[in-house]
Design brief:
Number of strands: 12
Radius of gyration: 17 Å
Region (Disordered): 41-76
Protein name: Invasion associated locus B family protein
Strand content: 25-35%
Shape: globular
Biased composition (Low complexity): 65-74
Structural class: alpha+beta
Biased composition (Pro residues): 50-64
InterPro entries: IalB_sf, Invasion_prot_B
């Protein structure tokens, strides 16, 4: 599979976030992200507390069963950002999930669809720091078969996985209710982040037509 090229600059323009309450798995995900000193939160609209330097040997938390982060009801889930004009126009459809820390927000996961290297759409996952990389990522639409993805690369903002968005996967995303994204912490504990698919179908239609999202009633763009 050809690696899809990630365009984070396009993804973070006019970003509107789906907020997840900082509880259950989210609490220790935030601790995991803070411990690695991730700068990813600086890209979100709300400021996040300054992260502490990474410790040389952090104690492992008490093992726990697989957990699921619970999403809050969002006003708008998916958005489309576009750059350029004419043949150079490039659009991205995305949902950015952040955890509400009370004093700020921390990015947990960004799910994107954008043109890959061959200009065919690709599904991309921007993940947090502090993961057990050999486990990769699993994504599951509703109660369908889980699909495993390899974590392809990592940088100062997090780690990344991707898959070609073929017709079968696209149809499942359009017809589904929830995309479950599962990864492992450095302590090899499973965490599943549920991503609502409500609004994906219409957002993808805008993406395919090269139309950027318009604000919802009462919503303003930065």
């Amino acid at each position: 599979m050809r690696r899809a090229q990630l365009d984070l600059n396009a993804a973070h323009q006019e970003e509107r976030n789906v907020v997840i309450p900082a509880r259950i798995a989210v609490g220790w995900i935030l601790a995991m992200v803070a411990a690695t000193g991730s700068p990813a939160a600086a890209q979100d609209t709300a400021p996040a507390p300054t992260a502490a330097p990474a410790p040389t040997a952090a104690p492992a938390p008490t093992p726990a069963p697989a957990t699921t982060a619970q999403t809050a009801a969002p006003g708008r889930n998916w958005q489309v950002n576009c750059n350029g004009d004419g043949e150079a126009k490039r659009c991205t459809v995305l949902q950015n999930l952040v955890a509400d820390q009370g004093k700020g927000q921390q990015r947990l996961l960004t799910v994107m669809v954008q043109p890959g290297a061959d200009n065919k759409p690709a599904l991309l996952l921007a993940l947090p720091h502090g993961l057990f990389l050999p486990a990769g990522v699993q994504m599951q639409i509703d109660k369908g078969e889980a699909q495993k993805l390899v974590i392809q690369t990592a940088d100062q903002n997090g780690s990344y996985a991707g898959a070609a968005l073929d017709t079968a996967l696209l149809d499942r995303l359009k017809g589904g209710s929830t995309l479950g994204v599962t990864f492992q912490s450095a302590q090899q504990q499973d965490v599943t982040v549920p991503v609502t698919l409500v609004g994906f179908s219409s957002a993808y239609a805008d993406f395919a037509a090269g139309r950027a999202s318009t604000p919802a009633p009462g919503e303003t763009t930065p």
